[in-house]
Amino acid sequence: SSALWAGLMAQMGVMFAAAAIVAEDRKRMARLFAVVVAAAVLELLYGAVELRAGGQVLLPLERKVYEGFLTGTFVNRNHFADYLVLGFGAAFGGALHAFRRMRQGRGGAAAFVLFGAAASALGTGVVFTGSRGALFALMAGAAAGVVAAVFLASRSELALPALGLAALVAAAVLLLGGDAVFERFLHIRREFQGEYSRPMFWEAAVRMGAASPVIGTGWGSFESAWSWFAGAPQVDALKVAHTHNDWAEMLAAFGFAAFAAGGTLMFLVGDSFGRVARAGRQGRAFLLSGALAALVGFGVHMTVDFPLAIPALGGTAAVLAGFFFLREGRSTAAVKAAACAFCAAALVCLAWSFGWSLDGFDGRADGTLYPGKRADLLSREARDRTAEGKFDEARALLLEAVRDRPADAYLWAELSATPAGGAKERLDAAEHALALSPHSLFVRREALRTCFSLLGSGVSPELEERAEETVRAVMRDAGEKDGRTLARDLIGYAGGLDPAFSLLGEERSLFLLLALPSLGMEDEFLWRLYTAPDGVFGKWARSARLQGILARLRRTGAWEQCARKVLEAAGAARTCRELRAVWALHLVRTGRGEEARTMLKRGWFADSPLLTFLVKAAVLPEREAAAELERFSGLSALDRRMLGFFLYDCDRLSRKGYRTCVLEALEKVGGMFPRDPGIDLRTAELLADMGEYRKAVALFERHLKLVRRYPRFRKVLEECYRRLGYAKRLQELKTTD
Question: How many other CB atoms are there within 10 angstroms of residue 85's CB atom?
C-alpha cells in the first residue's frame, strides 16, 4: 500500500541522515562499514548452513523453498543476493581502506585479510543464490569500485591491490561457482520462453507513468492495470504483482517526482565522491569507493527486480548513500535539488497513503486511466446479464469490450459462447479467439461449446462444415495435459463416444482415442485400437504418444493383443523404447523369454545400450547378466564415475515407466557396490512406488542422514511411514527435520 511506502521512505530517510552524521568521523564511519559487512557475512553463513542441511534448521521462517540455492533469512533468494551485493561493496571499500593504513605503517593487516576474505565470500555467495540479476549487479558494482580505486590510485598507489582484490573475487566466483552460473543461465533461457517478458511489463509501467506523470497512479495500481496498457488478457492481470524494475515502477506509482528523486540521489553520490577525492580525504574516499560499488550494484539490480520495497535492502542502501553526504562532499545547489526532489516524492507518497487515488484499481469503479469503460468490468457485467437470461444485453457489453481490447482472446471466446447474434458471427468470434490464443484451454473449451451449440441449431451446411472442422482442429492441437478435459467436453457435447468418433472421423479421432485412458476408459481404448481398420491402425501404431500410453497400461489379455499388433505394424525402427522394453519384460514374466532373446538378437534395442543391458539383466542368467554389465560399463568393474551416469539414466528411465526393469538393474549393480547410498536410495524410491513399503523403509533407514538432507527422499520415507502406520518414526523424522 502507499502507507507502507510512506513508512519505507521514512525509514530510509532516518537511516540516511544517521549515516551522514556518522560519516563526519572517519573512525565511526569505518566501524559502521564493518557492521554492514558483518551483518552480510552472518546472513551468508546462515544461508550456507541451511543449504548444507537441505532445509530450515535454525529459524522457522515462512518463505519460498529454493532447493540447491542460498536464501538466508529472506523470503526471496533474489533479495538475499542483493543484500550480499551491498555487503560485498562495503567489504571491498573496507579492504582498500585497511590496505592503505597498512602501507602507511599504521596497522590494518588483519582488517585487510578479514575484509578481503569477506568480499570474496560474499561475491561467491551471490553466485550460489542463483540470481542472474544480482550476478550482473555484482559485476557492475565491482567494476565501478575498481574504477573508483584506480581514480584515487594516482595519489596513494592502490591500483594494484584494487585490481588484485577484484581478480580474487572473480577467481572465487569462477572456481567455486562456475557450474552454478552456467547451469542457472541455461535454466533461465528455457524458463523465459513464455507469453510474457519483463520488458513488456516495463513498457506497461512507463505507459502508466506517462498517463499520470505528476502524481502517478498509486502504489499497487500496476497489478490491477498493467494488462490493459500491455494489451494482455485481463484474466492474467493478477499473475504479476511487480514490474521487476523499481525505476519503472516508481514512475508508474508515484510519477516523475519519485523517479527524479532516485535519479538525483544516484547523481549526487557520484558528485560527492569526486568532491571528497579532490579534497584530499583519501581515507574516507577509499571507504566511499566500496559504498559506490554497492550502490551501483543496487541501482543495476533495481532495473530487473524490486529491492527498494524490501526494508533491509532499502535501509542498508540508505546507510551507504548517507556516507557520501559528509561535509567535504556537499554542494549547496546539489543538496537543495535533492531536498526538493525528496520532499516532492514524500508528499506524493503521503497523499496516496491518505486515500488520494484514481478510481478503478479496486475493481469497483471505472478507471480514469482508461479511454473507455474497463474491459474486465464489462466482461463481468456481461456474465451477470447472461446468468439473468439477457443475452442481447450481454452481447452488447462484450462487443463494447472487444472494441476496447481487440487482442484479448478471452473476450472473443466469451462473445462466441454467448447465445445471441447470428451463427456466422459467433463462429467467426470463436475462430478469431483460437487464432489469438491457440494454446489456451479456456479458449478451446469455449470454442467447443460454441461449435456444438451451433451444430444442434439447424445452421446451413456450410456453417456446419466449418464448425465440425473447428472441432477437429481443437482436438488435433490438444496436448496430453489438456486432452482429458477437452475429450470429456467433446463426449458430453456430442452425446457419447460413438457420435464423438463419428464427428471426428476414423483418421482424425486419434486425439480423442489418446484421452480415453486418462478418463478411466482403458478397455474402450484397447478395443477401439484393436478393431480399427488396417489403414487407420497403421497410422495410429506409429504414434509415439499412443505407444507411450500403451506401455503404461495394465498387462491384460487385450493389452497383449494390442501391444503385439502395434509392434508388428510399427517395427523396431518406429516403436518407442518404452513399449519395446515393457513388451520384452512381459514376455519374460509370462515364461516366453526365448521371444525376448529373439528381440535382442534382431537389434530391437540397438539404439540404446542401457536398455539392452536392462532387458538382458531380466532375460539372461545371473552370470551372463554380470558379464553384460561389464561390457555395458566398458570397464572391468563399474567405477564411481560410470555409476553416476548409470544412476542418472535410471532416474530418467524410471520417470518414463521403466520401473520394473530399472529396479532389477539396480539390484544387480547393488551387488557390486553393497550399501552404496545412491543405489540404495533410488532402489528404495522405486520399491515405495511399487508398494513394497517395508523393503523401502529398510533401505532408507540405512542412510537416514542423507534422507533427512534431501526433500525428495524424505517425502517418500514419510509416505512409507504413513502407509505402514509408523506414527512414532514419522514424528521423529519430522521433529529432527
Answer: 36
- Nine-digit cell at 108? 590494518
Taking alpha carbons only, the member of 482, 556, 543, 542 closest to residue 518 is 482
The C-alpha atoms of residue 90 and residue 40 are separated, in whole angstroms, by 10
Cβ–Cβ under 8 Å, residues 707 and 717: yes
Q: Are 375 and 401 in contact (CB under 8 A)?
A: yes
**Does the structure show a pLDDT above 70 at 226?**
no
Print burial letters for 296-323: b (CB count within 10 Å at least 16), e (below 16): bbbbbbbbbbbbbbbebbbbbbbbbbbb
Residues in CB range of 648: below 8 A, 6 or more apart: none
Looking at this protein, which amino acid is placed at residue 15? M
pLDDT above 70 for 700: yes
DSSP letter assigned to residue 390: -
Average pLDDT over residues 315-324: 85
Structural domains of the chain in order of their starting residue, each with its CATH number: 2-187+260-327 (no CATH), 375-574 (1.25.40), 638-736 (1.25.40.10)
**What pLDDT was estimated at residue 333?**
59
pLDDT band at 52 (very low <50, low <70, confident <90, very high): confident
CB within 8 Å of 430: residues ≥ 6 apart? 412, 413, 416, 417, 446, 447, 450, 451, 470
Angle of helix 593-601 relative to helix 609-619, nearest 10 degrees? 150
* Residue 279 CB contacts under 8 Å (≥ 6 apart), including other chains: 328
Structure letter (DSSP) for residue 56: -
For residue range 279-288, what is the model confidence (pLDDT) as tens digits?
Answer: 656 667 778 8
pLDDT at 645 over 50: no
Are 161 and 113 a contacting pair, CB within 8 Å?
no
Q: What is the pTM of this model?
A: 0.53
Residue 131 has pLDDT above 90, yes or no: no
The answer to whether 700 and 707 are in contact (CB under 8 A) is yes
Q: What is the mean pLDDT of residues 567-584?
A: 75
Residue type, 12: M
Buried b (16+ CB within 10 A) or exposed e, 556-570: eebbeebbeebbebb
Q: Are 33 and 287 in contact (CB under 8 A)?
A: yes
